[in-house]
Specification:
Strand content: 15-25%
Helix content: 25-40%
CATH class: Alpha Beta
CATH topology: Endonuclease, Chain A
Strand order of the largest sheet: 1-2-3
Number of domains: 1
Order of helices and strands: EEHE
CATH architecture: 3-Layer(aba) Sandwich
Number of strands: 3
Largest sheet: 3 strands, mixed
Radius of gyration: 13 Å
């Protein structure tokens, strides 16, 4: 796996925070798919979603908590948890 970094890591608490925008992380509620080069964008955004899920799964295996925030959907990541 290529190295990936959390936007805000809390190493002491083994918590990784990811700040996500609706477009780049393909929020199903707010995504407005681009018209030009639509297939290329679809592949790119689907790759982002797969990478996010892979990163979450890897961190959970290492006993980390992942938390994601979007502009209007505070918890878009599969491993997201609230306190």
């Amino acid at each position: 796996m290529r190295r990936r970094r959390a936007d805000v890591p809390f190493v002491k608490w083994r918590t990784a925070v990811f700040v996500q925008g609706c477009f780049w992380h393909a929020c199903p509620q707010h995504l407005h798919a681009p018209v030009h080069n639509g297939e290329g964008w679809r592949e790119k955004l689907e790759g982002n979603v797969r990478r996010d899920a892979d990163t979450d799964a890897h961190l959970v295996r290492l006993a980390w908590v992942t938390w994601g925030s979007g502009s209007t959907r505070p918890s878009m990541r599969p491993g997201a948890r609230w306190w």
